[in-house]
Design a protein that fits this description.
The structure is a single chain. The protein has six helices and six strands, in the order H-E-E-H-H-H-E-E-H-E-E-H. It is of the alpha+beta class. The strands form three sheets. The chain has a two-stranded antiparallel ribbon. Strands 3-4 form a two-stranded antiparallel sheet. Strand 1 and strand 2 form a beta hairpin. The radius of gyration is 17 Å and the shape is globular. The relative contact order is 0.17.
Length: 188
């Protein structure tokens, strides 16, 4: 895969947020979208990297949650192979979030492309970053790496980081569930 670590984190954050903050099924289990203080905690958990969980203000959580349904639609369009729709949705997200590119220094002295929102507050910053991550996946022709789980009774999304790009399931649990069902069907 051609994503740098920053883009991969944004795409991972996108899938985590969609999976935690959109209704549907996870391996047959209904997803209950959190509200109130649990919402900020869920956003923080989804954005935890390297053991660091950000402090998520309620207003910031609401901004992020506001774009998650559209992020989900990008994953769905990509999974369906509808690149035109994925591009349209992503362009809409870029416009709504006011994503703007900026070069930021890393501790080692190198510079990396990051995206910021119309303001540097938590919600607008993450919303713009999520839109930019989807844009980068589409722009390097890797939008096919975004998918929706193929397992029965599951509609969670994933980012395929496998070498051969053939992932079909959101988790090993769903993959094993489908393999077991196929095995049982062959045994009949």
């Amino acid at each position: 895969m051609r994503f740098d670590s920053h883009i991969e984190r944004l795409l991972t954050a996108s899938s985590r947020l969609v999976n935690r903050l959109t209704p549907g099924l996870d391996g047959g289990r209904p997803i209950v979208v959190p509200t109130g203080t649990a919402l900020s905690a869920a956003v923080g958990e989804a954005l935890t990297f390297d053991g660091r969980t950000p402090s998520v203000p309620s207003a910031g959580a609401q901004v992020v949650v506001g774009i998650v349904p559209d992020v989900r639609r990008v994953f769905e369009a990509a999974s369906d192979g509808d690149i035109t729709r994925a591009a349209q949705l992503t362009n809409d997200l870029l416009g709504r979030t006011g994503a703007r590119p900026q070069l930021n220094p890393d501790p080692d002295g190198t510079w990396h492309l990051h995206f910021h929102g119309a303001s540097n507050h938590f919600g607008p910053g993450w919303a713009a970053g999520l839109a930019a991550g989807l844009t980068m996946a589409l722009g390097v022709d890797e939008i096919g790496r975004l998918g929706v789980c193929s397992a029965d009774r599951c509609d969670r999304v994933y980012v395929d980081s496998s070498r051969n790009g053939t992932r079909q399931f959101c988790s090993t649990r769903c993959q094993n569930r489908m393999k077991a069902a196929a095995h049982r069907a062959r045994q009949k």
